[in-house]
Backbone:
C-alpha cells in the first residue's frame, strides 16, 4: 500500500461497501416487513371471510359451503388453504385447495385469540398461518369450541423477496462499480501533477532536465519551488566544493612550485634534497586528497550524463599530443551513445588515469574498450571500462600492492601509483571495482566495472 | 628561440625566466592574463608556457584566442589542478602538453625542448641531416664524427635553422627569435655568425649546410635523415 491512489481506492471501496451494505439491509428489511404485513392483513381478511361463511348444520356442528367466495380456496395447490378443526384437533373441514395436503395442526391459540405462526408442511413448503379459536354458540344455546385456520404458502413471497434482493444487489453493485470507476478516473486526473513531478525528477536524474517546471496546481507549486531550490543549492554546493578544491589546489601548489624553483636556484646539497623530498610529500598528499571522487559529495539529483564516446575521444586526442613522440596507436571501441551516470570529472579521472598509465607503459599500442554492463540502463548507467597496453605488464603479486595509495612499482615512472589508487577510489564510490589482468597484447589490462546506479549508491 | 612565460606567481615566473634564459632561450614574460594574451598575440613567439589559473583572463581563454587566430606555436600549460578534466580542457583548447605544479625545472625545460623539436617536425632530440647531427639535450653539434665547438649564440642559430630545416628564415626573424629584446638589433651580426658557422661546419665547402637566399634569408639545406 505504497501508492496514494491505491490507498484512496481501497478506502473508498471499504466505505462504499459499508454504506451500500447498510442501505441494502434497511431496504431489504423494509421490503420483507411490508410484504409480510400485507400477507398477514390478507390472511386476517380470509379468516374473517371463513368465519362469515361458516354456518351451523343440522347436527349442531359448524360447516362451510363447498364454494367459497375466494376462488383460491377452490383450486388445488393454489397456495391458500383453509381449515376448521374441533378443539380436540379433529379436522371438520378443509378447503378444496388443501386436498391431499397436510396442513400441520400447529399450536392452538387461547380461546378468542389470533395466532400468527410460521409453519412448514411435510414437503417443506413454508407457510404463514393464522389460527383463531372461537366458542360457537348454537341456536339451542349449546356451544362448542372450534379452531379456524388459514394458511398461505410463502414460496411465491420468498421468491419475490429473492428476486427483490437479486435486483437490489445487482443495482447497487452496478452503482458501486460506476462510482469506483468515476472515482479512479477523477483520481487519475488529480494525481497527474504528482506523476508529473515524479517524471520530471526522473528526467533530472537522467540528466535531460535541470529543474522542475513551474506549471503545477497551487497546492504543489510550493513543493516544486522548494524542490528546485534544493536542487539548485545541491548543485551550487557541489560546484562550490569543486571551486574550493580548485582554488585550494592552486593556492597550495603554486607556492610549492615556487619553493622548488627557489631551491633549484641554489647549488644542490643535502638540505636541498631533503627539502625537495618534503615538497614531494606535500604534493602527493595534496594531489591525492584533491583528486578524491566527487561522487561522494554529490547527490543523485546533480549527477550528469556523460557522453563516454566524446570524452574518450577528447582524452585520446589530448594524450596523443602529450605522447606524440611515442607514436602510440590508440584503439578505442566505445559503444555508441553510451552514457556514464555520474560526475564528468570522475569519468575523466577514471579513463584519464588508466589511459595515461597505459601510454606511459606501452610500447606502441593502447586499447580502450567501454561497453554497457549486463544490467545497465539508460537512467542508471552501468559500464565496463577496460584499458590495455603492449608494455611490460604488471606482475600478479605486485598488482595488489600497486592499488594502495601512492605505491609505485617503478619509481622512474612517477604518478603511476596515485593514478591507479584514484581510479580504485572512484570506482568504489560508484559501487564498482577494479581488476588487473594480463592483456592479450602482452601488457597490463585494467578493468573497471561500474554497476548501474541505485538511489542508495549516491549517498 | 623566443619563449613566452605567462605566470602570475612572481617567484615562480622569475625562476622560470631565469632558468630558461640560462638554457639559451630569449624569454618574454607576463604576470597576468590580459598582459599574457597581448604578448601571445603580438610577439613573435616560438613557444608559450601558460599557467591555467591566471587573474584577469584565464589561461584557457588565452589558448583558445591564440589558436582561433591561427597561431600554431606549441603551448605548454602549467596547472595546479591535476584533475584530468582540467588537463583535457587545456589540451582540447589547443595546448600541446602540460606540467603539473609543483614541477622540477628540468621537467619544464625537457618538455619545452621536446615541443620545439616536434614543432619543427623532428621526432627525437637527435636532429640528423646528412653528415650533420645535432643533439639538443647535450647541445652538441657533430659533422661526421667530429664534434664542433660552438659559442652559445652560434648554437642557437644552428639549432633554430635545423629545427626548421628546409624553411627559409629571414634575418629579421633570426634576430627576433634569438636576441633578448634589449639586445642591439644589428642584422650584420647574424651574417657574421652564419659565416663562422659555415667555416666551422664545412671548412672545405663540400656539404654546404646553410644556404643564403638573397634578400630572403637563410635555409638549412641538408635533407633530414629518415629515422624510425
Residues:
Amino acid at each position: 500500500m505504497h501508492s496514494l491512489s491505491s490507498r484512496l481506492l481501497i478506502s473508498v471501496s471499504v466505505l462504499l461497501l459499508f454504506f451500500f451494505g447498510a442501505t441494502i439491509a434497511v431496504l431489504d428489511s423494509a421490503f420483507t416487513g411490508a410484504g409480510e404485513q400485507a400477507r398477514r392483513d390478507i390472511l386476517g381478511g380470509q379468516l374473517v371471510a371463513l368465519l362469515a361463511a361458516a354456518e351451523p348444520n343440522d347436527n349442531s356442528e359448524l360447516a362451510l359451503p363447498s364454494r367459497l367466495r375466494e376462488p383460491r380456496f377452490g383450486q388445488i395447490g393454489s397456495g391458500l388453504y383453509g381449515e376448521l378443526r374441533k378443539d380436540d384437533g379433529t379436522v371438520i373441514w378443509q378447503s378444496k385447495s388443501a386436498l391431499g395436503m397436510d396442513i400441520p395442526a400447529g399450536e392452538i391459540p387461547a380461546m378468542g385469540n389470533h395466532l400468527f405462526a410460521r409453519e412448514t408442511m411435510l414437503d417443506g413448503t413454508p407457510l404463514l398461518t393464522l389460527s383463531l379459536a372461537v366458542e360457537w354458540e348454537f341456536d339451542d344455546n349449546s356451544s362448542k369450541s372450534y379452531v379456524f385456520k388459514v394458511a398461505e404458502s410463502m414460496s411465491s413471497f420468498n421468491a419475490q423477496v429473492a428476486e427483490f434482493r437479486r435486483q437490489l444487489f445487482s443495482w447497487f453493485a452496478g452503482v458501486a462499480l460506476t462510482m469506483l470507476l468515476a472515482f479512479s478516473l477523477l483520481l487519475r486526473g488529480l494525481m497527474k501533477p504528482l506523476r508529473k513531478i515524479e517524471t520530471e525528477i526522473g528526467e533530472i536524474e537522467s540528466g535531460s532536465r535541470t529543474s522542475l517546471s513551474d506549471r503545477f496546481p497551487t497546492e504543489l507549486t510550493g513543493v516544486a519551488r522548494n524542490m528546485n531550490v534544493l536542487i539548485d543549492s545541491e548543485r551550487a554546493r557541489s560546484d562550490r566544493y569543486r571551486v574550493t578544491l580548485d582554488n585550494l589546489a592552486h593556492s597550495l601548489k603554486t607556492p610549492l612550485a615556487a619553493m622548488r624553483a627557489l631551491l633549484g636556484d641554489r647549488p644542490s646539497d643535502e638540505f636541498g634534497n631533503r627539502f625537495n623530498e618534503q615538497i614531494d610529500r606535500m604534493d602527493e598528499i595534496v594531489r591525492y586528497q584533491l583528486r578524491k571522487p566527487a561522487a561522494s559529495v554529490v547527490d543523485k539529483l546533480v549527477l550528469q550524463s556523460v557522453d563516454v564516446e566524446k570524452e574518450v575521444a577528447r582524452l585520446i586526442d589530448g594524450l596523443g599530443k602529450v605522447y606524440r613522440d611515442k607514436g602510440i596507436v590508440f584503439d578505442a571501441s566505445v559503444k555508441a551513445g553510451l552514457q556514464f551516470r555520474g560526475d564528468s570529472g570522475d569519468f575523466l579521472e577514471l579513463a584519464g588515469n588508466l589511459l595515461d598509465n597505459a601510454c606511459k607503459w606501452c610500447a606502441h599500442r593502447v586499447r580502450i574498450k567501454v561497453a554497457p554492463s549486463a544490467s545497465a540502463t539508460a537512467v542508471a548507467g552501468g559500464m565496463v571500462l577496460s584499458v590495455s597496453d603492449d608494455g611490460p605488464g604488471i606482475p600478479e603479486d605486485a598488482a595488489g600492492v600497486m592499488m594502495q595509495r601512492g605505491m609505485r612499482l617503478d619509481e622512474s615512472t612517477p604518478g603511476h601509483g596515485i593514478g591507479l589508487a584514484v581510479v580504485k577510489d572512484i570506482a568504489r564510490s560508484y559501487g564498482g571495482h577494479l581488476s588487473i589482468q594480463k592483456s592479450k597484447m602482452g601488457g597490463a589490462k585494467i578493468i573497471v566495472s561500474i554497476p548501474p546506479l541505485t538511489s542508495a549508491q549516491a549517498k | 628561440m623566443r619563449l613566452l612565460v605567462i605566470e602570475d606567481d612572481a617567484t615562480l615566473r622569475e625562476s622560470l625566466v631565469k632558468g630558461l634564459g640560462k638554457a639559451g632561450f630569449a624569454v618574454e614574460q607576463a604576470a597576468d592574463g590580459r598582459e599574457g594574451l597581448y604578448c601571445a598575440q603580438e610577439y613573435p613567439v616560438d613557444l608559450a608556457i601558460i599557467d591555467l589559473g591566471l587573474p584577469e583572463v584565464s589561461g584557457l581563454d588565452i589558448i583558445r584566442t591564440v589558436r582561433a587566430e591561427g597561431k600554431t606555436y606549441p603551448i605548454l600549460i602549467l596547472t595546479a589542478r591535476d584533475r584530468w578534466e582540467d588537463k583535457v580542457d587545456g589540451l582540447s583548447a589547443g595546448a600541446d602538453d602540460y606540467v603539473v605544479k609543483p614541477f622540477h625545472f628540468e621537467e619544464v625545460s625537457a618538455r619545452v625542448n621536446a615541443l620545439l623539436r616536434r614543432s619543427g617536425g623532428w621526432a627525437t632530440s637527435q636532429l640528423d641531416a646528412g653528415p650533420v647531427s645535432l643533439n639538443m639535450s647535450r647541445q652538441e653539434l657533430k659533422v661526421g664524427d667530429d664534434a664542433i665547438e660552438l659559442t652559445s649564440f652560434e648554437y642557437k642559430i644552428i639549432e633554430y635553422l635545423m629545427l626548421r630545416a628546409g624553411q627559409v628564415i629571414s634575418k629579421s626573424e633570426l634576430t627576433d627569435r634569438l636576441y633578448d629584446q634589449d639586445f642591439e638589433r644589428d642584422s650584420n651580426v647574424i651574417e657574421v655568425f652564419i659565416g663562422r658557422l659555415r667555416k666551422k661546419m664545412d671548412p672545405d665547402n663540400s656539404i654546404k649546410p646553410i644556404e643564403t637566399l638573397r634578400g630572403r634569408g637563410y635555409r638549412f639545406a641538408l635533407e633530414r635523415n629518415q629515422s624510425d
Summary: The interface with chain A takes residues 9, 11-12, 15-16, 18-19, 53, 78, 80-88, 91-92, 95-98, 100-105, 114, 118, 123-124, 228 of chain B (CB under 8 Å). The two ends of chain B are 26 Å apart (CA to CA). Helices of chain B lie at 10-22, 33-42, 59-68, 84-93, 105-119, 152-163, 171-178, 187-201. Residues 105-119 of chain B form the longest helix (15 residues).
